[in-house]
Amino acid sequence: MGILTSTDSAKKFSKLITDYGSVLSCVTYGVSLLMFMSLFHPLLWEKTYFSENALLPGLVKSDYNPGSKEVNRMYQSYTQRMEMTKPTGMSWIHSRLQSIGVDVYTQPFTFTRPGDTQSTNGSNVYGVIRAPRSCSTESIVIVVPTNTTHSDVSQGVNAGGVGLLLSLSQRIVRKNHWAKDIILLFSDHGLTGVRVWLEAYHGTSGKMLPAVAGAIQAAIGVELESETFGSIDIKYFGMESQLVNLDLFNTAVRLCKREQVLCTINNRPDSPHNLNNVDKIHYLMGTALSGLMTQAAGKITGVHSLFLPYHIEAITLTGVAAGDKQHGFTPVGRVLEGVMRSLNNLLERLHHSFFFYFLPSTDLYISIGMYTVPFVVLLLTPVIQLVKLWFQVTESRVGDRVCYSLPSVAGVIPTFLLCQLVGAAFYLCPGHVTGPSTILPTHLSLTLLSALLVSGLNRSAPLTPADWRVRKMFSILWYCVVLVNSFVHNYPLAWFVLIPTAPLVSFLPVPGGTRSTLLTLPLVLISPVVVLLGYCYVSHGTDVSDVYERAQSILHTAYVEYEEFNRHTYWLYCWVLYPLWLMFWGLHTSRVTRQCQPGPD
User: What CA–CA distance (Å, rounded) separates 64 from 163?
Assistant: First the structure.
């Protein structure tokens, strides 16, 4: 409190920041990088554990043990009917559920995808198995998309998932130990059918379902395209970096290991036992970074992603064909039954365990308490420069006296508003172009035009070094506000934005010198569209046409999923990240007078 009440302390603090602010920023940046890298050291990893004791995974005997040909027969029957017409396959599912005594309902719907002019018809089929031991106050959803054409998870017909759930439902309906309703959802058109069903179930679309069950406590997606698979990939990422409660993930992992089924995350198994300590750390670091990149993109990784915004804990079990040991349908059926039995034990929603974490393997985790500290230290790099600029623009000496005056930010407002208008143009342009083939050329053209426009605006009137520092101070303040909010909603994205950009925005010099010229290329390289092209270049090969097509597909998918599923990655790209970069680009290309020698930045 002394620094707030003592004039001498304030002067000392001001002198410390003004004289040594650049050194302190460099130190905090280096320390934060070391702290971030240390997160991947085994000493900071924790073994996963169950916080909700009521789950009791694996403590009951599994009842699911079908005949060797039962599921395969249903798999083949469904595949044959889907080869005829899709309505034939859905009607076959409806008749099969009716024959085993399930209350079956159909939900016809019509939708139009963004960019399309013609409507598409679909029909969801869902069955409700009422709990004999309760009064339909709670429910569990098992969702099987009949096809995954529009899902990033896989492509094709989910015949294995359909056959497995129909076989499992024959056992479920005969048991009287269920304390929650069981909803068996067979969604048409992949993710779209799930979205339509969820909106109708919760009454947000204005359309009602023929019948509903209790409040949904959890959901499990099943995607098995083939009759055999080598491993089960557990999908736990939601949109906008949402994560499932760690207890539900741990339940699926525990049951997979009990059934001796190899389970993976991000399509990567746990580290092989024959690796030495260094190679093991590198392998686990790769698994964790792969998950963080998926989170940062905010991608929809499965049908479970659509349940998480409704505060419904959900995962998707996806069969992966590759693997040394091939499994049939029975092990994954027993895993699915075990997860349902564990969820059936719950007395309240899952809330004890972590919702913020990242995983280097299926049995290790790093919690929010560990990865928040490096982010805060890293954020000090631009914050120290912000405080330093504040002292530079507010303090002035008159003889031996130090006077303080508030700076005017009126000159910043036109540039700020122009950057936001350019972001609005990015946001609105895909709705007026035809097809995905035009979205990337449009973004590239807007990037070039807006960069020239902002540069022209900032060079139209020369600035004094003091005015330039006021604009830099405002830009860094907005930069910090954006990243703090991004960290709350999508912490991997905040990490990946802050690490490369913090030194550039913090030490951006007054335009006109050699340092300023050298920083032109790094500023171009961190523009959002160039980062997207660079990511596609690194991850999808060096062929120019492949890189272009992949970048175009990512942009179009982000736009379509924003319009259809309310995934905000495209909104964030247009309204936040690009205007933020444009502000610093305008700052870098400003024209500054040399009437007085600029002080250190």
Answer: 14
pLDDT tens per residue across span 271-293 = 887 778 888 888 888 899 889 98
Q: What angle do CA 157, 162, 168 make, to 5 degrees?
A: 160
Strands across the sheet containing 120-129: 103-111, 120-129, 181-187, 138-145, 215-223, 313-320, 231-235, 263-264
- How would you classify residue 58: left for phi > 0, otherwise alpha for psi between -120 and 50, otherwise beta? left
Residue range 481-492, pLDDT digits in tens: 999 998 988 889
Nearest CA among 443, 403, 397 for reference residue 423: 443
182: which strand partners? Answer: 129, 140
Q: What is the pLDDT of residues 291-333, one digit of tens each?
A: 998 888 888 888 999 999 999 999 999 988 876 778 888 888 8
In whole angstroms, give the CA distance from residue 560 to residue 557. 5
The verdict on pTM exceeding 0.85 is yes
**Torsion-angle region of 139 (φ positive above 0: left; ψ -120 to 50: alpha; else: beta):** beta
Q: CB count, 10 Å around CB of 236? A: 26
Do 222 and 334 meet the contact criterion of CB atoms below 8 Å apart? no
Q: Which residue, 219, 204, 235, 221, is CA-closest to 311?
A: 219
* Contact (Cβ atoms closer than 8 angstroms) between residue 600 and residue 515: no
Average pLDDT over residues 429-443: 73
State both tokens at 176: 């009287």
C-alpha 295/C-alpha 236 separation (Å) is 10
